[in-house]
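#data-curation
PF: Archiving a pair of folding outputs for the training set. Convention for this channel: one message per protein, sequence first, C-alpha cells after, nothing in between. First:
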Amino acid sequence: MLTAIATPFTEAGTVDNDGGRRLAAHLLEHGSHGLVVGGTTGECPTLTDGETIELFRAIRKEVGDDILLVCGTGTNDTRHSCELTKMAADAGADASLVVVPYYNKPNPAGIRAHFETVAAAVPDLPMVMYNIPSRVIVNADPQLLGELGQVDNIVAVKQANDAELGPIEGLAILAGNDNTYLRVLEFGGAGVISVASHVVGDQMRAMYDAAQEDNLERAREIDAELTPVYEGLSVTTNPIPLKAALEMLGLAPDRLRLPLVSADPEQRAAVRTALEGIGLSVVAG
C-alpha cells in the first residue's frame, strides 16, 4: 500500500518541506509501505522540478533509505520527463511514476515511444506507468501496457481505467483509485497507490494484510466500511477534498495552488460526514 502524499504549502504559497516530512512520518506510522512524492495528489502540475526534488530529498531524509519512495516524473514532454527522471534517480528514488502524456493526445505509437524513451534514459531505475484517461484523455489499453511491460525496467502500472482493470502479464498492477483496491487484491495484484490512506491508512493496510493471508472475506468487510470515505474524498477533484480532510484532522493546512481552490461548504460537509462516520475526531472546521 503506497500513499500518493499530498504536498503541504506554507501561507506564502511555497512548498512546506518540513510539513511534508511530518506528513510522511505520519503516513508510515499508519500503514503505508511507502510513498509517491509529486504525483497527482501532490499537485505535480504546479510544482517546479526543483520543488519536487527538494521535497523528495526532505522526505527521503525523514524516512531513511529502507522505505520505498517513488517520484512522479511524468509530463507531456518526453525530453522533460527524461530530465526529471534522471533528477529523481540522483535524489535516491526507488522508482519513477510516469503518466501517459496529457494534452498532446499521442497515438499508441507515440505513447509507446514516450515510455520506451523515458525508461531508456535511466535504465537502472524501475518505472511505474500511470494510466488515467479521465485526466489525460488518451488511454493506454492493456495490450499496449503489456507490450511496454516487456521493457526491462518498466515493472508496474497504476491503472486508473477501472473498466480495463485486470492482470497484465509482466506487470505488477496497482489500483489507481481507492474504490478498486479490493478488486486488485482479489485477482492477486500488487496493491494500490492511494489517496484515502492519508486518513484511513491503518484500515487499508489491514485490507492488504488480510489478502496476503488469503482472508478476502475480511478484506471485503473493511472495504465496505471504507466506501463512504472513498466517496467523501471524491466529491470534487482530488486533492481538494483530501486537503480539507487533512486540515480537519490537524495533519496539514487546507492550502492548494491555483487553479485548484479549497472545497466549498457543501463539499466540506460531505468530507466531515465521511470522517466522522468512521469515528475520526475532527479538530478543525
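PF: Second:
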Amino acid sequence: MLNYTSPIKELKKYTGLTVGEISPLMKLNLRGKSRDFLTAIGKNINIILPIEANTSSSSENYTAIWLSPDEWMVVSNNIDSKDNNDYEIEELLFNKISKTNLGSVTNVTDQLVMINLSGEKIFDLLSTGCPFDFNDFKSKKGSSTQTLLAQIDVIIHHNKINSVNLFVRRSFSEHLMSWINDSASRL
C-alpha cells in the first residue's frame, strides 16, 4: 500500500455539512466493450455494470460507476486493511478480463482519494465551485458525473440522499480539501 499522509486528518463538521475521507477502499478501473466483457464482470463480481451515462449500480460488496461508454470504476463497499493492496477480486478480474483480451483491469486504489460529503448543504457547497447543474442530479440516488470542482478534475457519486462521494487524484486532494474547508466555513 502506498505510504501517504492524508489531507483529511479527522472528520470535519460545518453547519449542515460533514466532510471526511473514507479509506482504504479498493478502486478498480475497468475498460471493455464486448458482451463477453460485461458478462464476465457480472458473473465474477455479481454486479451489472451500468450502461446508461452518469449512473451507477451497487451490490452488497461493490459499487460500479459509469465513466464512459467503455469505462467504469468499481469501488469496494467495505474498508480494507491499510497494510495490503492485494485484492482477490483484482486478480480474478485480471485473469478473466485482461489475460483473455476482453478488456483491461487497473488498480487505481492509491491514485484516488475518496472524500464523503454528507448533510443538507452538499449541493450548496458543490455549486459554489463547479459548473455542473445539480438540479436533476441531487434528486437521483446513484447519479454520477465527472466535472471540475475548484478547477480540479473530480468524479462525483450521489450514493444516497444527503451523501456524496468525491473521487479526486491524490496529488490534488490537499488543494481540494483546502477549498472545501474555506468554502464550507462560508455557507
